[in-house]
Write a structure and sequence with these properties.
Elements lengths: L8 H9 L4 H13 L1 H19 L10 H11 L29 E4 L2 E11 L2 E8 L8 E3 L3 E7 L2 E2 L4 E2 L4 E4 L8 E2 L5 E8 L2 E3 L1 H7 L6
Antiparallel strand pairs: 1-2, 2-3, 3-10, 4-11, 5-8, 5-10, 6-7, 6-9
Helix pairs in contact: 1-3, 2-3
Length: about 210
């Protein structure tokens, strides 16, 4: 049996070190919330990083560090204020419930997209994709890197099937056409760098109307 599609070791190492871009970190953290097996490995990496930090020479604090910390403590009223929900999708994994969401936009062909108002990195941002059963995205490649985690449902490309918690990494060398193979809509979160690039003459014709 083949291993489940997961973030690459390079991607997980960057996440554990805190060097992954914020949009990509949102998608990786969503995958880890759904995949305890991968999360344990990342926590081990973070533990190694913590041990290395303990061996470093300590850095002197600012002279007023203690007084500033005590001032913050003194200003705390001790009241706990319940935070209102940040979005209307309680079924999302915890990392995604931290962010407001835009409105659903229909792209046609049973495909809908919704912006996740997480931190951006240049042109890289986070979106939710919802595709109806039996439907597919247009065949496309990418202007940059695209990281995708399946939240519910399932889809298949020419070479691989992806189920809830699975992770796909695609770039400009990836040409694919994800098709939903589940009986329910497939809901995914993706960190998208730039726009997808549609394949073929018809794709180029409708490209101006397909904006993710």
């Amino acid at each position: 049996m083949n291993a489940r599609p997961s973030p690459s070791e390079e991607r997980l190492l960057a996440y554990a070190a805190g060097t992954l871009s914020p949009p990509e970190a949102v998608v990786v953290s969503t995958c880890l919330a759904m995949r305890p097996d991968a999360d344990v490995w990342v926590r081990q990496l973070q533990g190694v990083g913590g041990a290395i930090l303990e061996d470093l020479e300590p850095t002197a604090m600012q002279p007023d560090a203690l007084s500033r910390a005590l001032a913050r403590v003194g200003s705390d009223t001790g009241e706990v204020v319940a935070e209102p929900p940040l979005n209307d999708m309680p079924e999302l994994p915890e990392p995604l419930r931290r962010y407001p969401l835009g409105h659903w936009r229909r792209l046609g062909g049973g495909v809908e997209v919704r912006d996740v108002h997480a931190p951006r990195d240049g042109d890289t941002r986070v979106i939710l994709l919802r595709i109806a059963p039996g439907q597919a995205t247009p065949k496309h490649t990418h202007g940059g890197v695209e990281l995708t985690c399946v939240i519910s449902g399932a889809y298949a490309t020419e070479n691989q099937s992806y189920f809830a918690g699975d992770f796909e990494e695609a770039d400009g060398e990836t040409l694919h056409q994800p098709r939903v193979i589940s009986d329910e809509p497939c809901l995914c979160v993706a960190a998208l760098d730039g726009q997808i690039i549609l394949d073929g003459w018809f794709g180029r014709l409708i490209q101006p109307f397909v904006r993710l």
